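Researcher: Hi, I'm a grad student and pretty new to this. My advisor asked me to get structures for two proteins we've been looking at. I'm not sure of the right format, so I'll just paste the first sequence and hope you can take it from there.
Model: That works fine. Here's the first sequence with its structure tokens right after it:
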Amino acid sequence: TRRALIGLLLGCSLVFMVQGFYSASDDVVELNPSNFNQEVLQSDSVWLIEFYAPWCGHCQSLTADWKKTATALKGIVKVGAVDADQHKSLGGQYSVRGFPTIKIFGANKNKPDDYQGGRSSQAIVDGALNALQTLVKDRMSGRSGGSDYSRQSGGGGGGGSGSKKDVVELTDDNFDRLVLNSDEVWLVEFFAPWCGHCKSLEPEWAAAASAVKEQTKDKVHLGAVDATVHQGLASRYGIRGFPTIKIFKKGEEPEDYQGGRTRGDIIAGALDLFSDNAAPPELLEILNADVLKKTCDDYQLCVIAVLPHILDTGAAGRNGYLEVMMKMAEKYKKKMWGWLWTEAGAQMELEASLGIGGFGYPAMAAINARKMKFALLKGSFSETGIHEFLRDLSVGRGSTATVGGGALPIINSVEAWDGKDGELPVEDDYDLSDVDLDDNFGKDEL
């Protein structure tokens, strides 16, 4: 009947619309269980493959960019598409759980990487070319690809990305010696070379390892375990997914790391662990040039207090100021700053270079010796005042100036404070018995 014919035509049109994402005229290769092995798995080319479902709105939105990508990469990188709704076996084989999912089949076709970048044609092309560059570098180095913390991956480096040499490779043989028997804190990533999320984490982990090593003076370590090779370790710690990050502290059960996966998140988490387990930095009196130079050279900032003369405060007053400084050193210990103090008048060149100038004690300055810049405490010399001063510095606020002369000043060698009240200098006694005083002294008439 006519109604039946219309229904048949509509049905055919619907089928055509559903299956019509890509056609033979496109540069996108339609893949299915019949051709996937020969086209992809047995190929020497890099493949960029979209797993999609015809009913998926995001897949429909991606179609134009996917075709554009395929045309741009023609002859360079293969671009394919799998209707994973129709070919569920292929989607299941590669753990496709959402649409669209994009995977990069590089050197090891059995272990593709998840593409994590943007969905514009330019972003996808960039991701494909990076994968191609990595494949070429691996071939030139005689490697077959995969995630390995013992080597640098492709991508040019630079930009403070860190070095994988700062990530300690952990194995069944060295794990107990390096981690469990250590007095220091360890963050350990358990990874699998075929895991896409592990690949995404790899540069973040390497950059964080370098920063943490420097900022904690090598007191917190970042390590990595290839759980597919060292299965004994993975079994011991119940690793069921990748990447899994665990925190190891001596004498305690390991705990799961719950923080973010960017280098900034990892660094912040490591510094928190460091500060929780570290003693506050030592508060040193500036006794000679070496004390000032070493402290200011070794740390990002050196915080210097110029305290009133001992005759003005006594031991109790000075200890009160020092106690405030020690509390703030504890509060800011994860910043890894140096803490120093001197007595007013003992280091006049230092005071002059910081613009303190012989008044307004107690005073405080924070010096960045690398830039030869300093900032002065404007508020009160109290926990609240110093906290506000240092908080502003830590987030890049507050006014700074150049250290006078553009270099650390001359420092006098002085004796350490003995912890006692000061004593007035002893003066010579004068015998006034032989001095004739005019009887009229003080009686001048106006």
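Researcher: Oh nice, that was easy. Here's the second one.
Model: And its structure:
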Amino acid sequence: MNQQAVTKHPVTDSVKHALAVSLRGVEELLPQDEWLRKLARSEATGVPLRIKLGLDPTAPDIHIGHTVVLNKMRQLQDLGHTVIFLIGDFTSTIGDPSGRNNTRPALTREQIEVNALTYKRQAELVLDPARTELRYNSEWSDPLGARGMIELAAKYNVARMMERDDFSKRFKSGQSISIHEFLYPLMQGYDSVALKSDLELGGTDQKFNLLVGRHLQSEYGQEPQCILTMPLLEGLDGVDKMSKSKNNYIGISEAPNAMFAKVLSISDVLMWKWYTLLSFQSEAAIAAFKAEVAGGRNPKDAKVALAKEITARFHSAADADLAEQDFINRSQGGVPDQIDDISIAGAPMGIGALLKAAGLAASGGDASRLIEGGGVRVDSGVVSDKALKLEPGTYVLQVGKRKFMRVTLS
């Protein structure tokens, strides 16, 4: 593509840099030539572009996988553009069917308000609140009224709506599709009209809705937005996407020590994808780190740096330093500074029953397997006898490298 030919404004080095930042780690940026024109125009005129992310405040499992899109927003924000964090308090009352094979229940107003505050707190851990425009789509959706809704519905046809993958599959299998579900992508698209969005971000499952926004902006005489989708983040196992149900996640509210240790547990291969999607380091800095590792530097150094960056983002730099020291202490056989306490009655008690009672083993059989594998310690001493009984007293139980519990047995 001849970059100079596709825009009326000069494609300077800073515009090229902005395009590279935009493309970092993305799944798709469509249409790329239109986005380049917007970037060049913005630099030439000094008018920031309007970058929109809409999220329905459904009850989330908040983990760092959810921050991938927010990180991209922050990168664009740091380029000087206007970031709009849109709470879909109106669209939540419809229910987004994206990726579903049945209708998703709508939320109550009370649920929406509680969850909206949760999302806002989450966003402010990544975005700069002073440079973020927080909006609610009820601002323009409620006043639209019945007449406005009908006029909006007239701007999109059923055939195109049925091209949406989840609608098509449900229709072919004879599953119910409610008319109100067609309104969801229309209302999300109308958000882009109301906000005069230049770029809308979303997950890969939102591509259809984002394209509806482009179509509606054209229908209303606006310049169509570009769309940017981000990939899903693999979890700790490096196989499945990060989720609580897979137990391969890092919650953004987890303790610093746990967060740091979990980042260090990922594979060396997965680490580089996490760097691309989660780190705020430049691609040049990441490439330099990767070259050093390829040249013989211990990959753990890179992983420690990533763990400290992520921990500091959701806690503080001091917490990240303490978490690193805590990890070093534990790797050398030490006990963390902060561990949970529990009191259990029933002494003398077998080690297997105690592990289960303390929540460190799922069952007696699980406890036996842990002991056989040398993964159980009592007061730093490895337990090899599955028949061990503990008398009344206070003990520090350890399972594996990261699970500790101070147990007072009576």
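Researcher: Is there anything I should tell my advisor about the second?
Model: You could mention this: Residues 1-6 have pLDDT under 50 and may be disordered.
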